[in-house]
Amino acid sequence: MEDRLRFGLLGPVQAWAGDRPVVLGPPMQRAVLAALLLHANRVTSVDELVDLLWDAGPPRTARKNVQLYVWRLRKLLGDRLVSSPPGYRIAVDPADLDVARFEDLLRAARTEVRAGRSEQAGGLYRSALDLWRGEPLADVAGIGTFGAGAARLDRSRLTAYEEYIDVELDLDRHHAVLPLLDDLVTRYSLHERFAEQQVTTLHHLGRRGAAVDAYLRCRRALADELGLRPGPVLQRLGELARGSADPPVPGPREPALRELPHTVAAFVGRQRELAVLRERLTDRPGPAIPLCVVTGPAGVGKSALAIRAAHQVADAFPDGQLYADLRGATAGLRPAAPIDVLGRFLRVLGVADNAVPTEVAEASARLRSLLADRRLLLVLDNAHDAAQVRPLIPAGTRCAVLVTSRRNLIDVDGASHLELDVLADADAVELLVRLAGSHRVAAEADTAALLVRRLGGLPLAIRIAGARLAARPNWTLATLADRLHDERRRLHELRLGDIAVRTSFLVSYQHLADPMATRLFRLLGAVDGPDVTAPVAAVLLDVDPPQALDALDELVDARLLDETAAGRYAMHDLIRLFARERANDEPPAERDAAVDRMLAHHLDLTRHALGLLRPGTRTPPITGPPRFADADTALAWLTIERTNLVAATVQAAGSAAHARRGADLADSLYLFFEMSGHVADWLTVDRAGIDAAVRLNDQVTEARLRHDLAAAYFYLHRPDEAARHLEHSLLISRAAGDDEGRARALNQFGVLHGMAGDYERAAEFFKDSLRLRRKLGDERSCAAAQGNIGMAYRLAGRLEESVRHCRAAASLARRAAAPEVEVNALGNLGEVQCMLGRYSSALRYLRRSLAIAGVPANERNRGSIMGTLADAYLGTGRPGPAIKYAELAVDAMRRADFRHGEALALRRAGRILCAHGDPGRGVEQLRLALALFTDLKLPEAAEVRAELRAARP
Hints:
Keywords: DNA-binding, TPR repeat. InterPro entries: AAA_16, BTAD, OmpR/PhoB-type_DNA-bd, P-loop_NTPase, Sig_transdc_resp-reg_C-effctor, TPR-like_helical_dom_sf, TPR_rpt, WH-like_DNA-bd_sf. One of its GO terms (biological process) is regulation of DNA-templated transcription. This protein has about 950 residues and is of the alpha/beta class. The strands form five sheets. Strands 7-9-10-11-8-12 form a six-stranded parallel sheet, with helices on both faces. Strand 10, helix 15 (about 385-390) and strand 11 form a beta-alpha-beta unit. Helix 18 runs parallel beside helix 20 (about 475-485). The radius of gyration is 35 Å and the shape is globular. The chain starts with a strand and ends with a helix.
């Protein structure tokens, strides 16, 4: 039985087939589904969808994009989604759409309220509100005009909450509903109705002081944000609560305490952060004490910021400021015990030594009593964890607490958190100026910018660098930059007296509580790549993913790792250098085994992904369960992980222990780069793979990778380098008796001669390749070679022979399930038909080709097909579609990073525009084409110059 499809918009856009979530694709595709579901069971026109997705600025390809998204959704949803001119309609049972269920439950609840059945109404309201998973349309609300729809849904939710709370209050459930009201008032501080209900509830419960605070908090929010006064109902409730509240009793005053350390002289930037801290420490909106926690990695400047902010708000705390270094970041010392800090605070506040309690709970209670009526700021610097901080927090609302910590102290109740990042480049350079001198930095401005980037914008590192320059007036900035160039010595150079970046990191490392987190940190130092995911961490540790997540969380809490995006973790550059040092503490055999597991993981997923994208091409047979839901998901994974895969390939190739993995990764990634471009990474991977193959004395793989490298040079239009690697590849394949390698090299020689304009010679090479491929019995490769012969004959003007070979190639490719080969063959047939003036026939071939090339896309192929479609439409006298496809061809070639193809597409677009009504844009396209042809040193540059001269009025 087919799984029942259910849909959700009350949160991120989601769908489920039974209990299994459906992967809905990229945001724009989910947005199309959301638009259709918002109009479920009725037609949504294409124009409406375009307006929803792009508002006032849709691209020229908007309608085509909508069609593509709908086509992809149909593959996921089946016949639920149908074409119905002038648009599309999705058929959904109301029970299977959370918005419809929510509205039905609201109607039923209101019916029960009108009938006086409050108990039943409350249950229905709860059922309705339980359907919500977060903000409505959360993942698409920022697209086009979806924000309005999200706002409408959110208003319905707020109304439901208002009505539900009224029902609960009617049932005298004030205690039960108060936590919900507190949460709603926090989230919707400007929503007066929730404030009215909260003040009423607190007043009813006898908490009159809290009711007054709630009223004042809402009044302040309305004034600050909207410049408004509360409405009459809320004002009256506030007056009632205030009329019976007890006035505060002033306490005795002691001489003010002034314990803050001095602020650093060279302090730059952080104006936004200072403003946030000033506001949070001095604003008293309610019963909770202002409690701010500043977090960030070692050396980022948390203490400097906190002390400066404390000085700026000191006047707001007339009873003074207490300061304690809790030693959570001090090398060689244990974090301060709470009882010791409490004892010092109590003695400062006048408690005699023999009267200071020796138990934490008693001492903490005594501190709260002494501070109850004082207005005093506590600065708790370098906290180790929440358990160290909690006993030091006063209870009265007149005090405030400012905490700094490397850890995210999320388990400190009532705290607001401020995350501190490294300095922006401009602020980092300004800090260097303050320390080393403006004339010195101005004389080497470029070196200064390089220096702060090399230090990763970390204030501690920049302060050490600046102090070293100040102490050595004979050094130039270049002198220090050279000393910091060697990554193996960089941390060694970043020290000054007893201050060192390495020591600062070491404290965080030594304070890790989980041995698995300590080991993961070492192993992350043993692998290259910009970031890591939980699955990779699990592979490195050889544990289950939940255990790896615990270790990652510990490293994030210790600020040795940052979660840069959901599920992705990265290190600051200097912390990575420290991790590499710590990697040497891991037993070599275990370290190598962990790296090998990671490389095997990357290779396995790469092969699975490319097995979906290019089935039967180069990738070995895939075993085990599928790793990806579909080809789109596979392509997305390769795209996201590209930089990690490149780094892993280079690392493996450079190691005797992992050279096999490096060669295999490079070999597999060729198919991805051939589809997507990224030529710089393509070159890097193939060069590394060749080095690994040579190290392994694997001639077959070396020949294959030299062929791949030649293909990358074709992409760059560098035929001489391509020929050199092809000759080497062919020579190695012959020596090794590798007929498959010989056939591959001969095929590329055909491409090389075709690029040089020697089409007859190119056809001979393709035929030689075809003979070897027939001997090997590889239908897919035979189809590709046959199609290449057809292409060469087309270029040579032997059109009827080209048609015969291309038709044979298309037929063979279909039989071999080789869509990318069939795309090329049909595209060539379309071009031949254009040359023969058979434009209607050309359109049929090209549309078929484009449909096959659609998903997942080889952008280079798509660009070529769309360019030919432009020619075909122009041949049928339809310049509008011709212009559209000519411009789409340019976009596709750019995405493919294929500069020669982009130049050709620009030239075509320019010609069509000049000839059909928009010469201004046409000349612009021709100029762009000329720039590319000139940069590539191609003869077409002279032809385009002549075309530009002719296009001028």
